[in-house]
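--- STAGE predict ---
source: upstream dedup step, 1 unique chain passed
mode: sequence only
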Amino acid sequence: MKILENKNIRLLPLTADHEYDYIRLANIPEINQRLSKPFPYSDNHFNRQLDNVQGKEFYIWMIQRSGEIIGAINSSTGKDPKLFQGGYWVEPAYWGKGVASTSLALVRDFLLGECEAKRVQAVVEPDNKASIRVLEKCGYEREGLLRKFYPSSRGLIDVFMYAVVR
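--- STAGE serialize ---
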């Protein structure tokens, strides 16, 4: 996996060196409430996650800005290697500063270009207006509401499906 970057953001492939930052971010309540990750998130959870990154089917990058790790973004394939689904999370202090949209655009371009993806998709909770804006800013189109679809700490929840297709 390669580093993706522009003048403001670097996306670093997840390694064992990122354990502290990944766990720290995953345990921020405003982040964890939107994830399908256990709380508290531990080093054991991180090590299992790191094992899942092996191979081409799953990508996780740490988002770096001005030398500081401030988020994570991921994408994976399912049964079809040309279909990717992913998500992102950014430290609350950086919300509204273009970090998520810049990171998502870098990953979208990588998947559509180098991975030759035919479809890149994401799900988002209907009340997550900020993430909806990020997806739409990056050219994702809303395809519909999936009821009781996404597993979260609150059970199966409704989500909108967004996608970019080639």
